[in-house]
Design brief:
It contains 16 helices and no strands. It is mostly helical. The chain has a single domain, classed as Growth Hormone, Chain: A (Up-down Bundle), CATH 1.20.1250.20. It is globular, with a radius of gyration of 23 Å. The model has no long low-confidence stretch (mean pLDDT 82). Pfam families: MFS_1 (PF07690). This is MFS transporter, YQGE family, transporter.
């Protein structure tokens, strides 16, 4: 058990702990955004293409807001920008629930607002984690954060599903108006939670990035490998957020079943994340990353093979494992590369965070585009069944790319260290000659 001691909360600064607390509170909002906004669209339109359009609008809004955020950081406190990002998620949901009809224009506007929310939240969150943690503590940071998020994500869907269906499953069909009223109540609660998270966050102390140039178009060859990983990660994000809701509403037709299914295996996944974060080291990241990718492939494989209620449950269970496992390895890899290259290229860390987001956007666009093309030219069922499988297979390429990236990173670190040692020795020699 001695080995399990590893890194702990004692190794984090006060501001890092407040950031974890803030993200834990905001984690109560994320399952609502990820799952139930999509199910709300499906319930009121019965059109998967509208769900994907909403997701595309989000993914258009994110990189644009990342870019704008770079300029805003020069004049606005990072606390306010981060808080605004959380608050806008509530604004987007309020706008969505106020629509008389789920039309394409309304969905696009709601999606763009949510994209702005994610853009401000993630752009500043990535920098805040980078600024308040060290490489040796990041496995535990993401393990702890993912543990807390996964526990919350296992509870919130069940509670919401029960709340939406409670009193509405009598004889005959469920009242759509009653369920929609439930969605509006949840939206108000979400808005309140975002306000609470914003207040808590302001108890921390955080420095903003340096006011330097942050837009670059040429990068080190190591960063190009990181961008390849970003594109492949974005492929899955293209519609993986909304795919569970579409599949669940197709086969179970109930937010109650949706909430229960989301919770299957979540607690097990959470414990795995906490243990992995505590005992794993930077050298284990490739192995952890590979396990996550294989789990995602198996999830898409069983969904495509069975494409029934059993297939959806297996898909959901494996997805609950794969997503957090991937994150606990991917984010530390990304931040370590930024740490290394920002010192070598003498660039603002935010320039890499911004560029990485555009890599994700390309992948997201291709992932969502794959679904839309198959749905338009063939049919929606084929898209739900096989687009995921195509992306699951392509994602396996990330294992090869990650292995190459980590090898190049190690070589570059050694070269940089050798150069620093040579400079130090030369300086010592000059000092010795001067003294003589």
């Amino acid at each position: 058990m001695g080995k399990l001691a590893g890194v702990g909360l004692k190794d984090f600064t006060r501001s890092a702990k407040i950031l974890i607390l803030t993200n834990t509170i905001y984690a109560f909002v994320l399952p609502v955004i990820d799952i139930f906004v999509a199910s709300y669209i499906m319930r009121n339109s019965d059109d998967p293409s509208k769900v994907i359009l909403y997701q595309l609008a989000i993914y258009v809004g994110i990189p644009i807001t990342f870019f704008i955020n770079g300029y805003l950081l020069n004049t606005i406190n990072i606390k306010r920008l981060f808080s605004l990002g959380m608050l806008l998620s509530g604004v987007s949901m309020v706008f969505m629930m106020s629509l008389d009809e789920i039309n394409y224009t309304g969905i696009a506007v709601a999606g763009l607002i949510m994209g702005m929310s994610f853009g401000l939240y993630w752009a500043n969150r990535d920098y805040l984690v980078l600024a308040t943690t060290k490489d040796k503590t990041r496995n535990f940071y993401y393990g702890l954060e993912t543990f807390l998020y996964t526990i919350i994500a296992s509870i919130v869907p069940v509670m919401i599903g029960w709340f939406l269906m409670s009193g509405n499953e009598g004889e005959g069909e469920i009242s759509n108006d009653a369920v929609n009223s439930g969605y509006r109540v949840i939206t108000m609660i979400v808005f309140g939670i975002t306000i609470l998270a914003s207040i808590v966050f302001h108890f921390g102390t955080y420095e903003k990035p340096k006011s330097e140039k942050f837009l670059y178009f040429t990068f080190h060859k190591l960063w190009k490998k990181m961008l390849q990983l970003a594109v492949l990660k974005g492929l899955a994000q293209g519609f993986i957020v909304t795919a569970p809701a579409m599949l669940m509403m197709k086969f179970f037709h109930s937010e109650g079943a949706l909430g229960s299914a989301i919770s299957i295996g979540a607690v097990i996944a959470a414990v795995i994340m906490l243990v992995l974060g505590k005992i794993s080291k930077p050298k284990h990241r490739l192995m952890i990353f590979s396990v996550g990718l294989v789990s995602f492939f198996l999830a898409s494989f069983f969904n495509g093979l069975l494409f029934n209620t059993t297939g959806v449950i297996i898909f959901m269970f494996l997805l609950l494992i794969s997503r957090p496992v991937l994150d606990i390895a991917y984010f530390p890899i990304q931040l370590k590369v930024i740490d290394l290259l920002s010192s070598i290229e003498n660039r603002n860390e935010f320039s890499y965070i911004l560029n990485h987001e555009f890599g994700l956007f390309v992948g997201r666009f291709l992932g969502a585009g794959t679904f839309l093309v198959i749905a338009f030219y063939v049919n929606t069922d084929i898209a739900l069944r096989y687009a995921l499988l195509i992306i699951g297979v392509l994602q396996l390429l990330s294992i090869i790319i990650a292995k190459q990236l980590l090898k190049q990173q190690e070589t570059l670190e050694n070269e940089t260290l050798a150069t620093k040692n040579e400079i130090a020795q030369s300086t010592d020699s000059i000092d010795t000659i001067t003294v003589q």
